Task: inverse folding
């Protein structure tokens, strides 16, 4: 009988201990993290269409989050090596971004950027495979490295 009582007390102690407050998992303590919702590699089939890059804010930021959107060629180099390809960065003037920086207010969770292509300028390029890789950067928010960029690929 004594063993049963001791087991009951031990089990009760475990239950009480597991229900105690643990600040490390409280939502209010999770810092702002930005990521590209449609991250990854996308094949561009229609140069006349606008493409959209969506940046999402996760976590709990009680402050305005600022970030920039810019061209990053490093993922193109890595992608070429991993896939035995020869993608060339798309030259400036072949695309237009609706903005290169943005601010997400406390209550705002997402913002979109439009990307359009200059079909005439792209037509003047040599035949080949091109890529435009856009990445986000921020000084006051974390960035999810697995979803940092959108790479748009064009076959000419």
Result:
């Amino acid at each position: 009988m004594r063993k049963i009582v001791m087991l009951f007390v031990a089990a009760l102690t475990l239950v009480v201990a597991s229900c105690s407050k643990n600040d490390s998992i409280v939502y209010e303590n999770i810092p702002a993290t930005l990521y590209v919702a449609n991250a990854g590699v996308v094949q561009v089939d229609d140069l006349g269409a606008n493409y959209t890059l969506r940046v999402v804010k996760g976590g709990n930021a009680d402050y305005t989050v600022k970030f920039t959107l810019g061209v990053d060629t490093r993922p193109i180099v890595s992608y070429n090596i991993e896939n035995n390809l020869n993608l060339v960065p798309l030259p400036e003037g072949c695309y237009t971004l609706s903005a290169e920086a943005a601010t997400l207010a406390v209550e705002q969770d997402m913002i979109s950027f439009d990307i359009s292509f200059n079909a005439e300028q792209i037509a003047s390029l040599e035949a080949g495979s091109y890529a435009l890789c856009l990445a986000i950067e921020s000084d006051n928010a974390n960035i999810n490295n697995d979803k940092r960029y959108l790479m748009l690929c064009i076959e000419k």
